[in-house]
Amino acid sequence: MTEVLATGAPGLVDEAVRRAAALLREGDVVVLPTETVYGLAASAWDGAAVQRVFAAKGRPSTNPLIVHVADEAMARLCVREWPDSASRLAAAFWPGPLTLVLPRSPRIPDEVTAGGDTVGIRLPAHPVMIAVIRACGFPLAAPSANVSNAVSPTTAAHAAASLAGRVPLVVDGGPCAVGIESTVVDLTVDPPRVLRPGMIDEDAIAAVLDVHAPAGRAPGPEAPAAGPLRSPGQLARHYSPAARLVVLSWTDDADLGRQMAEAGIDRAGAHVLAWNRVPVSLDGVRVHVLPRDPAACARDLYAQWHRCDELGATAIVVERVPDAPPWRAIADRIARAATPA
Ligand code: TXA
Ligand code: MG
Predict the structure, then answer these.
(1) pLDDT tens by residue, 78-90
(2) Measuring from atom 6 of ligand 1, which residue has the nearest CA?
(3) Is the CB of 113 under 6 A from ligand 1?
(4) 3-class SS at 317?
(5) 185 touches ligand 1 (CB under 6 Å)
(6) Do 184 and 195 contact (CB within 8 A), yes or no?
(7) Alpha carbons 109 and 10: distance in angstroms, whole number
(8) What angle do CA 90, 96, 102 make, to 5 degrees?
(9) In terms of pTM, does the model score above 0.70?
(10) Average pLDDT over residues 27-40
(11) pLDDT at position 248, please?
């Protein structure tokens, strides 16, 4: 059975933190809120506990996990080196949706890093998550709290639906404020590279590090390499709703209707997510408006996909967003969800 604990009042927070920390100390797994997406946490010092994360998710153990810390001192325990670039990025963006990839400390077991020599670390901006890490006294390895390849959960209800019966406890910390996964930046290469785009964009990182990539292009996602997976960007299809997802851009409703027909999309089960040219006259199609502001759009995107699935959508048509900061991370998640299995 999976229990869901609320945190909407001070006494409830204390109780949820106590229960979560007790399970984590015993080597069990717990779903916890972060500001990006809900995470499925286990002790980052305990390889056997981390194996339970992979088992619950049905995730290939070749995909490394992000380690969550409560402060910079704990981050330093997880790594062999803490370069000036890490200090600067941590000062600028922590707590927040930025993961730093650094040389791993011997205390981090192979299960966390998929056997690789680096570890991804972040200091999340969610008070409940931080309270649980403090109560445990050890860092928490946590991937997104969904079965492998499904859309990441941005509410406790999404996580509980995805992992029902596979985890003992879900702590409800409310809807995630950021809504898509953290930016992952590799600090073991020079210049540093963004492995997974997120809402802290390449330009913001380059400005803090004072690096200027050639041709005005900040460090971007890298090409696949051998060895352990270095970012989920190497799994082309990721973050996918159950419905077929198609990205289109259109000039007006008639144009959209034509393109949907050409793509073989049955209007009866179709849901359109639009932020710019919102259709008003397409018979049979359900329309959801995405916010025009990128931060608000990111916060809403996965919840909209979850809702389309819950409503039995057979196809989700997403209006194309610009592939440039500050939209790049959103464009990346949409493109991955649209990749055929
Ligand atoms: O926002 C987030 O990052 C959320 C919340 C829970 O913190 N976590 C998350 O975890 O998205 P996950 O497991 O779904 O994605 C983490 C990705 C992995 O797919 C992995 O490829 C990359 O981060 N990663 C982790 N450790 C890495 C490493 N040592 N080197 C390169 N990439 C790494
Ligand atoms: Mg994930």
Answers:
(1) 999 999 999 999 9
(2) 39
(3) yes
(4) strand
(5) no
(6) yes
(7) 35
(8) 45
(9) yes
(10) 98
(11) 97
